[in-house]
Amino acid sequence: MPCNELEGFEDWYLEMLDEAEELYLKLLNLPKKYPERKAVAPKTGLLKKMLKKKGLTIVREETFNKLAKLVTERKPYAPHVLYTSLGTTTISSKILYHLLKDPKPFVETCLLFEEESQDTYVKLVKLLASASSLLWLALSAFPGYCNIPSISLKKYGIEELGYGKYLKLFNVKNKFNIENVENLMKEIFVCEVYKFEERGFVPRDGSVFIDLGAALGETSLWYSLYAQNFTSLAIEASEEALKVLRWNLELASEHLKNANARVIPIKKFVKEGKDLKELLAKAPQDYSEAFLKMDIEGYEREVLRGISDFLKENKPTLGIASYHKWDDLIEIPRLIVESNDSYKLYLKPKVVLLSPPYGFTFNVFAK
């Protein structure tokens, strides 16, 4: 059973560290200007080969090239790299500590997922627990879905148009313009982290989309690429974010009109199921099969507890961000099942870093 692999995590982790140490020594022994740096991560590199057998993709030659360039040019990391590194190191170290101390909670939560997603859960937990040890290999690539320079937005039909009223302006597939930041554009429009087509987690015509943590409106507008005649409740607690969201809706107004779509910006922090019911009254569509997306910067579990009655009564489809706290991958699946034990839990099957489809499976899907 895949979940039981987590009970033997310590042996796997020590073996991985031995492989990482060997690569580290190779780096130290290279000439100062790294003329042979491509040899650091050959296609048969020990760490890459071992982790590939585990279903993980960690190291590529270009990653080492970037590392070598940073070292030789003594360039400081950009602020977002430091931010990502700090968050990853903290979460990774906590997962590592608790997994070594007692793997039982991870094993028990793993078993809550459908069998097809259990192997993915194991791979993801192992990767996260190892991230602080491997961070220097991947630079800023941990843990963002799409915070990877090699992704070409233009290749995916997204063109940068310069700066707009608030942020960078992007054109999406010649359908609408949106002001946003590059990382979110990659996460939502390239990786499509809230889409799991194989299991039916897709935008639907005539549906209600509950965009909880709507940010700048990017996920609601992504939804409009695939669905028509729907209503999105774009719920956001930050007035600053809502200011940009409202402007983005103006920019995309013609596209939304053509799709017969309503995106309703709402300033609110949802605390209880009755909050959602009141807001859903704004949607003309039947919300019995609503899609509830939640990404609210670490407050997901508090809201899940507050809306448990709503989930029990209505059972909307769920896509919940599960990466803000070290134990999100334990607590969030448990809270979903506790609210309604008929939910089936899934993770996208791919756990990759530097190759398509670019991303981890940090979102827990339920239906």
Description:
The structure is a single chain. This protein is of the alpha/beta class. The chain folds into 2 domains: 2-141, no CATH class; 192-321, Vaccinia Virus protein VP39 (Rossmann fold), CATH 3.40.50. It is 44% helix and 13% strand. It is built from 14 helices and 10 strands. The chain has helices at 9-28, 46-53, 61-73, 79-101, 104-110, 115-138, 182-190, 218-223, 239-251, 253-258, 273-280, 300-306, 308-314, 328-339, and strands at residues 158-163, 168-172, 176-180, 208-212, 231-236, 262-267, 291-294, 317-321, 345-346, 363-366. A 7-stranded mixed β-sheet has the order 6-5-4-7-8-10-9, sandwiched between helices. Strands 1-2-3 form a 3-stranded antiparallel β-sheet. Helix 1 (9-28) packs antiparallel against helix 2 (46-53), helix 4 (79-101) crosses helix 6 (115-138) and helix 13 packs across helix 14 (328-339). The longest helix is centred in the middle third of the chain and has 24 residues, at 115-138. The radius of gyration is 21 Å and the shape is globular. The chain starts with 8 loop residues before the first helix and ends with a strand.
